Amino acid sequence: xxxxxxxxxxxxxxxxxxxxxxxxxxxxxxxxxxxxxxxxxxxxxxxxxxxxxxxxxxxxxxxxxxxxxxxxxxxxxxxxxxxxxxxxxxxxxxxxxxxxxx
Length: 102
Description:
Helix content: 40-55%
Number of helices: 5
Protein name: Monothiol glutaredoxin-S2
Order of helices and strands: HEHEHEEHH
InterPro entries: GlrX-like_pln_2, Glutaredoxin, Glutaredoxin_subgr, Thioredoxin-like_sf
GO cellular component, one term: cytoplasm
Oligomer: single chain
Strand content: 15-25%
Keywords: Cytoplasm, Redox-active center
Strand order of the largest sheet: 2-1-3-4
Main location: cytoplasm
Structural class: alpha+beta
């Protein structure tokens, strides 16, 4: 889990994804739509992807992807990101993380 936390703290927005996951792609596009440039770790392309996936599930991600860190904090998966967006709280979170500027 330390590796996941370390990777999640690398940049203002970090997304753990799989190349075959449409929801992960949609979440990435949503965040990019605000002007952010997330770092995306495709688990199915990483040699230690299976270990990272297990760690994400231990954090409470079920399914394991997408898993989103914003501002060095684990935010959650697609449900949490969509909920934040619907409530108008995703953009301020991205601004506070210095992922986007107004």
